[in-house]
Amino acid sequence: MKWIVGLGNPGTQYAKTRHNIGFMAIDEAAKAWGISMTPQAKFKAVVGEGHVKGQKVFLIKPMTYMNLSGESVRAFLDFYKASLEDGLIVYDDLDTPFGQIRLRYQGSPGGHNGIKSIIQHTGTQTFDRIRVGISRPQPGFDIANYVLADFRKEEEKELPGILATTLEAMEYRLENTFERTMAKFNK
C-alpha cells in the first residue's frame, strides 16, 4: 500500500493559491488515475483509494488547514497501521524556483507549517517529499500574503506542465525506490 498527501487549505478562497499546489497535485493524480475523492471525517481529510501500477494507493488532502496537516497524516497512519516509508508528501516550497520540483527524504520544515505539523505528529523529519517550487517573493513582501495569493496569470499558464511533472514523479515512485526517483527528477 502506498499513500500520497498533498498539502493545502480547504475552501474555494484558497483553491488557486500557491500554498495549495499540493492539493492541485492530488486532484491531478485523482483525475489521471480515476480515483474518486470523498470526505473522511475520521482522517479530517478528503481521501481517495484506487489501484495504480499494481499498487493500492491512497490520495489524501487534509482538511485541517495547513498548520494542522499532521493531524490528518497521524490519523491515517494509525487507522491503516500504515508505514511512513510508504508515504509521499507533496507541498509548495519557497526555496525551490517556480516551475521546478525537488525531492527529499528528510530535512527540517524550512518554515513550512504543514511540514512542521507532520514532523510533530510523526516524531521524525525523515519522510519522502516532493517540494513544488513557488519561488520567494520580492524582498519586503509578506510571506503569508504571498503563499496565500493566487498564482499570477503567467504562472497559471505554466501550472499544467508543473503538475504533469509532479504527477510523473508520483507515479514513478510507485514502482521505484525514492532514491531512483530523486535521481530521475532532481535536476
What is the topology?
Elements: E1 2-6, H1 21-33, E2 37-40, E3 45-52, E4 55-62, H2 69-80, E5 87-93, E6 101-106, H3 113-122, E7 126-133, H4 143-147, H5 153-175, H6 178-185
Parallel strand pairs: 1-4, 1-5, 5-7
Antiparallel strand pairs: 2-3, 3-4, 6-7
Helix pairs in contact: 1-5, 2-3
Q: Specify the overall morphology.
A: globular
Low-confidence runs of at least 5 consecutive residues: none
CATH-defined fold name: Rossmann fold
Count of strand segments: 7
Structure description:
With 187 residues, the protein is α/β, with parallel strands linked by helices. The protein has one domain (2-185): 3-Layer(aba) Sandwich (Rossmann fold), CATH 3.40.50. Helices cover 38% and strands 25% of the residues. The protein has helices at 21-33, 69-80, 113-122, 143-147, 153-175, 178-185; strands spanning 2-6, 37-40, 45-52, 55-62, 87-93, 101-106, 126-133. A 7-stranded mixed β-sheet has the order 2-3-4-1-5-7-6, sandwiched between helices. Strand 2 and strand 3 (45-52) form a beta hairpin. The longest helix is centred in the C-terminal third of the chain and has 23 residues, at 153-175.
